[in-house]
């Protein structure tokens, strides 16, 4: 499937690749925070962020809470 075709299919479903990616990252991050003792730095790396500060900002956008508050 070409990127353009994928984009059209996702648009037809009312979503985008970025939104799906964010949803998966959020789900993984919340699961790691609830079930492990991994550091925020480690979780940020596991869900694909190169900078922990960017992960913290995204997590707050997703959940309304800081990672430390969520844990």
Structural commentary:
By secondary structure, the chain is an all-alpha fold. It has a single domain (19-70), classed as Arc Repressor Mutant, subunit A (Orthogonal Bundle). Helices cover 73% and strands 0% of the residues. The protein contains 5 helices and no strands. The chain has helices spanning 3-12, 17-35, 40-46, 52-63, 67-70. Helix 3 crosses helix 4 (52-63). The longest helix is centred in the middle third of the chain and has 19 residues, at 17-35. It starts with a helix and ends with a helix. The mean pLDDT is 96.
Helical segment tally?
5
Main sheet record: none
| Helix and strand pattern | HHHHH
Shape: elongated
Report helical residue fraction.
Answer: over 70%
Model regions low in confidence, pLDDT < 50 over at least 5 residues: none
Rg, Cα atoms, Å: 14 Å
| Second-tier CATH architecture | Orthogonal Bundle
Oligomer: single chain
Tally the structural domains. 1
CATH C-level name: Mainly Alpha
Instruction: Kindly report the CATH topology.
Output: Arc Repressor Mutant, subunit A
- Helix/sheet category: mainly alpha
C-alpha end-to-end distance: 40 Å
Tell me, rounded to a whole number, the average pLDDT.
96
CATH homologous superfamily grouping: Homeodomain-like
**How many β strands by DSSP?**
0
Please report which band the strand proportion falls in: under 5%, 5-15%, 15-25%, 25-35%, 35-45% or over 45%.
under 5%
């Amino acid at each position: 499937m070409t990127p353009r075709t994928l984009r059209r299919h996702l648009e037809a479903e009312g979503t985008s690749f970025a939104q799906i990616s964010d949803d998966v990252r959020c789900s993984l991050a919340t699961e790691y925070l609830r079930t492990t003792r991994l550091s925020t730095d480690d979780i940020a790396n596991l869900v694909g962020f190169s900078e922990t500060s960017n992960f913290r900002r995204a997590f707050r956008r997703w959940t309304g809470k800081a990672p430390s508050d969520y844990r």
